[in-house]
Amino acid sequence: MMTKINHLSEIAAQFCGGKHVVFHASVSESAIVGRQLIDRCDLWPGLSVETFMPGSPCPYLEDDRISVATVMPGGHLRQAVNDGMVTVLRESLFQQAQAYATNRRRADVLVLQVSPANEDGMVSLGPSVGIVPQVLAQQPFVVGVINRHVPQSNFTIPAARLDAIIEFDRPLPEVIPSASDTIDQQIADNVLTCLSNGITIEVGMGGTPDAVMRALPRLDDIHIHTGLINDAIMDVVSSGGLRAPVTTTMAVGSTGFYNWLDGNTDIDFQPISETHDPDKLGQLPRFHTINAALQLDLAGNVNAERIGDRIISCPGGLPDFAAGARRSAGGCNIIVLRSTAGRDGKSTIVPTVNFQTLDGSLVDIIVTEHGIADLRGLNASRRAAAIRSVAHPHSEIAYT
Fold first, then answer.
1. What is the pLDDT of residues 124-171, one digit of tens each?
2. Which of 223, 338, 328 is nearest to 285 (CA)?
3. Rg (Cα) of the chain, in Å, rounded?
4. Residues 266, 245: contact at Cβ < 8 Å?
């Protein structure tokens, strides 16, 4: 039976005794529940929290009696991760879903932020599906935060599945895409020469991938199957060049973007078990992935996680999509990166990456603002030469 509450202390028994709480991902994480967790932290000793790229600051970081873990930190957890306050669960997104599907990890409480129930008694998960179905299958206690600002998306669950509800109306956190500069636009122009009409495309996160997404209206008869969308998708949808609804598991963006998502049948939200399964991705013909790197070496190995010893990100969906494209007939893995980074203009192409996210054997094409390195069919020495050709011409790596 659904119970309406004002504070988690009213259901304290669900959180005590070393319970594990999973939060709805990204901008769907409820700030009010995070705050209430530390209001009465004394009531639930040994509590652990799993969060995913939260869209706003995390109050529970203020109390070290709550242990926190994540498979993707995002900006609001990055410093805490590097300070050792948050445990990194370094696995791909499909592996995270499998961890719950196989009971390798178990949730005692699931906290969701959902829309009000419709006339059929269903609530929408809004802009985030992720691993929710796998966690729900474990029959955890479900706390639902009912928020009228959550857009109605196609993925719904019965309101009756919510064991306790808190009514709290607040606009979802805005995550505004970074503006693309001329370098990003040049890289996007280069990427478009590698693409053709009729393909299926995945585009990752970051300023350069956003520039690529904004360039996709130049193509026709394409399908976008990806992990996360933002404001950049709106122009692609309005261009009329899509042959099917955009498939994704998560969305972040501006308030205007969330309003655009509300009831939008051009966006098909699916769980990670569908969007990131390499076997299912391999069944998509001509599946092309476009993802950013922080650093890349002469063997094509990709570092998408660390700058020096500092953790910036985690594997995310990169390994899943790369494996899927490799299994797809006519598939292709494209890595995009700016040739230099930082105030000192250090080359992002190096002899050997200092941290490996993706093995170079899975990389087909590398694109920088200086050109395209097609590595397919090349031996080790020719691969290295091709990669050097797209490094910054003034960098040491271009001449070694």
1. 999 999 999 999 999 999 999 999 999 999 999 999 999 999 999 999
2. 328
3. 21
4. yes
